[in-house]
Write the structure tokens for this entry.
Amino acid sequence: MIIESALDTDTYKVTMMQAVLHQCPGVITEYLFKCRTPGIDFRPYLGDIIKNVNRMCNEIHFTKEDLDYLSESRFIKSDFIDFLRVFRFNYDYLHINCDNKGTLHIRINGPWLHTILFEVPILAIVSEVYSTDFDEACGIDNLNAKIALIKNLSGFFFADFGTRRRRSLAWQRYSLERMFKECPKQLVGTSNMLLAKELGIKAIGTMAHEWLQAFQAMYRVADSQSMAFETWAKEYRGDLGIALSDVIGLKYFLHDFDMFFSKLFDGVRQDSGDPVYFANKMIDHYKSMQIDPLTKSIVFSDGLDFKKAIILWNLFKNRIKVSFGIGTNFTNDFDYKSPQIVLKMVRCNGQPVAKLSDTPEKGMCTDQGYLNYLKTVFDRRIS
């Protein structure tokens, strides 16, 4: 069984889920799966994917031990714990199949509150089912090289963001244990709540793209980004203060991330586009409002490996606080190319929503007309 615990998910799914419960519990959403790696025939893997998702729906729930762990967090509230006590994964919200070309189709449709936790474990299942033919010695050699690269770097900080595209839970656990033992000053946490609990590591995560996307349907499109940040601040009152910057694109993000949000949030996460350009723009943005950039943070998380992270660290460590979320390169670095897979929100309350990324191929929207409208609205706002 691939998914062993309801806690085997990313922290930001749980933090967003609590905010959905309190701020917008009646919202209906739709997610679609996309494999960005061309040419993969998923038909040989379809049966195992469906079997493991079914098992998760039938057997996995939050245990008393899970809920006791979550209750220890300063930002998890008691009524949310009560909701998780009765939460179950419901297969009725899912549609999973392959077409005659081997393209894997996964569609999730239902109440946001009841579907939000599907994304990470389903992606982990797809990744593990696909990643069966691997050379463990290669993975160990690659991990050893990573440890040697960073263990003596004072002030270099990274977190494991690799649950969604990992080789397996066992490999992610092994990699974290090694890093925690050999690079305790560099490893600041993991997005995986189960492994954070097991290993005594900090659970890392705030918001994901879907949080901002949903507000495109709940409010005026022009106000969606600001309302998403406003509602997040209402829920967490200054906690979990890393804002995601690339749902509409950096230019529009900087327009909405005014002095109020710039002072309120601890920093931002960069997940697409040119990281050097992004960091320079953020530093200038803070300076324009007479905010010392060294009091703020950038979390770089866009397709990083450790060599790229070190380059960025050396460029910006004396100009702004920097840390790194490293995913696939940490949890699935073997002698094969792991598939780049995502499950993104595409509709909310019956309306299309979009991720308009600073890296065009990372964008996702099923309605070109809506995408054109979104761009027009935000262009008018800053003209």
The chain has a mean pLDDT of 96. The chain has two domains: 11-132+340-382, 136-331. Residues 163 and 286 are 32 Å apart (CA to CA). DSSP finds 17 helices and eleven strands in the chain.
